[in-house]
Amino acid sequence: MSAAVRAYAAVDLGASSGRVMVGRVGHDTLELREAHRFGNRPVRLPEGLRWDVLVLYAGVLAGLRAAGQVDSVGIDSWAVDYGLLDADGALLGNPVHYRDPRTEGVPEKVWATVPAAELYAATGLQYAPFNTLYQLAAARSTAQFGHAARLLLIPDLLAYWLTGQQGTELTNASTTQLVDPRTGTWAHSLADRLGLDLGLFAPLRRPGDPAGELRAEVLEETGLTGPVPVTTVASHDTASAVAAVPAVGERFAYICTGTWSLAGLELAAPVLTEESRAANFTNELGLDGTVRYLRNIMGLWLLQESVRAWGDPELGGLLRDAAEVPALRSVVDAGDAAFLAPGRMPDRIAEACRASGQPVPRTPAETTRCILDSLALAHRLAVADAQRLAGHPVDVVHIVGGGTRNALLCQLTADACGLPVVAGPTEAAALGNVLVQARAHGLVGDRADMRRLLARTQRLTRYEPRGDDARWREAEARLAAR
User: Which residues in the chain show pLDDT less than 50?
Assistant: First the structure.
């Protein structure tokens, strides 16, 4: 391989699958191939819903074996969840899944000590029942927590097993609701008030920092020749995905699509106003000290669960049929916590439509159209609210992630937002992961340089807005009145 082109392994873990991707990076080269993909299915134990993290680690090792020789490894995953280690560094049970119901009623108990408005002013994090802060409050009285000497977020746990070194990556740490987004450091006074020991966390790392080298046992297992460094990337997958938005300038919104839709702006400073809190926007940290100012929307989880309930019909045909269904016939709130748990998704969508006096979807095509219209409407509201609350106007919306494959959703989002949509890249999190590694090793420059390389090398599709905005305003009013 030419010295000007290097290979990087991106371990990219999502809520339903994991994969190891290999990126080749050079001055005018940015290529990505999948080395290995593996399932990520939670397990329901008597004590609750758990991640099978040992299966994930085995998948990572198999992926590195399939990847072949690489110059570095980086790991990103979903946010908020963690593993607990004892004083010897051994894992204390499988990590709890964020959809586990253990945090029911916990936020109210936390707010009795630190009111929600004060939490937001200190951390800028939107309310979500599964935030790490609430998980820790729920776990504090358990025997397992009592034996814990260290807490590692999921990507940091896997990096520890690969290298033997412990750290806490900052973009993911910012989702714990224990970081001050203004300083990028732990919110010690908040943790003290809540009786949480921040000493459980390993020292903070930032994207680009070294995270150790693959252990000898890992090299033997994977067949790689050492030394192979592990490089800290933006380990929250959304932070990696936003780093891979191929934007020009700063007047853009992004929507990272997948199981969730994360819609918002990249800002230089957090927005910590009470109005922002009421609108349920979050301030998570991104690459180079940026702030990911965004709203969490339920995303393609609604469609994934519905497709599973229907016996996994062919998605292309389902989307073609949905395109023939009248637009905006029925819409639901795609951010409603009622849709958070798995199971019976088509029935729950039908119940929401019935309760709001709208036509009830009867067929898979009608339900699919309801989901996509509802997601586009949620995207519209989030993009508009973010601009207003941050005082940051935009000219274009970038959609990255799995939703870029859904042309109907992309077009509906352009229609709903009244702005051009640029869709791509699909593998944004893995590309952001790879680019941060390449930047740490001197192959690319700043964020603008990374984005120019993405724009030169990745397939992008542009959707122009069409139709009458009045239809979307009417649907918006209908949803607000429910």
Answer: 1-2
